[in-house]
Specification:
single chain, about 425 residues, alpha+beta, 3 domains, three-stranded antiparallel sheet, 11 helices
Length: about 425
Amino acid sequence: MQNRRKPNQKQKKNQVKTTPTKSSFNTKYAFVNLSTPEVSTEVKDLDRLREEYIPFGKDNLFPQYLAELKRQSSTHRSVLAQKTTFTTGSGFFTRNESLAEYIDDINADGESLKDVFKKLADDYFTYGNAYLEGVVYEGGINFYHKDAATARVSKNKKTVCFHPDWTNYKKSPEKKQVIPVYPNIASSRFVVHYKDYESTFNFYGLPDYVASLEHIAIDYEIGKFNHTAFKNGFSPSAIVTVNSDFGEAEAEKFVETAKETLTGSGNNSKILFLVKNGEDSRGTDVQIISNKEDGDFLDLQKLTDQNIITAHRWQPALSGIVSSGKMNNTGSEIRIAYELAMSTVIKDTTNILLSPIKKVLSKELGLDTEDLQVVYEPPISFLSDLDPKQVLTINEQRMMLNKDLPEIEDGELLISDRQTIRVERQNTNV
């Protein structure tokens, strides 16, 4: 698998960055650029394109931008991880023993089909594209995941060019690797290209969340703002102006005593003291500072999270966001959200990724892949909703309490059935 390298930010004006500036008052400040890359269309005039591949994004570094964005936004990264986990499930199931043995070890690195499939799903959700390399050998095929950020499609769509560092591609062209797209095979190698459909895009797919790139960038900036504010101790909670004749030592002692009495621990609730000596006849003046921005940022964070989750076609309950008034019914809400996600996102993506693998195995190796499927695992079970008295026999319930308890007569019945039999026996005796 190719190694990712962090793109050179100086060549990317679309990265989130700050430009330090200095004012005439020797005050440092910064402008924050939250612009995102332009991906409104692909190159149409291929005759004027000098390179043998199709650039992805205006600067050909759009996948690198998406990779960096994934490492910056906690909400965005969490949703991507959840989608990948649910799509992969607990692994694969098949009744074909030969196929089951094969998918446990599908390449020379000792990876299973689940290992490779999980990486494919992660790339597909992150980039809208995924690449599976096949290496043919006598009697079999090894499957490998190829990093989607390193791939660029050729003009004729018949090959894919891989390079570990597209920022410095022209400086190291010898590092590129060109692999034909299946069903073409060259030098015993081929690649399967998965791409999410996007209108007007013929060479690459786009991820679901492409419409929320600005919100993901804002999520990163909010986190940076909160971290900086915390390190700097936030803003003062109040300004206290004391008009009195203090000596320097007396003023310092007064301020220290007031701080110990009026402020909290650490950097919380700081107070700015201004001591004036005989400048004003007034006494002490206290000005309370209301940090309204904190509330504004909380609202902005909620709106940002909502927009990111919506763009992903995801469910808030699966991201740990429970609707107000439903805390007592969280399990039901999560199960409903899981069923919606399965029907709208997960199963469809699983079929897209698994179908080409099954076709290759069937055509090239003659394996029967008809029943090969993912075993899904719901995030929450139904056990908490079950009444043991309704589903377990009396002896099974006794064993759960204490495995040494002896079995009793009619213990193989449910409590309700046993009570019915007892009533019938009593009526018979009467």
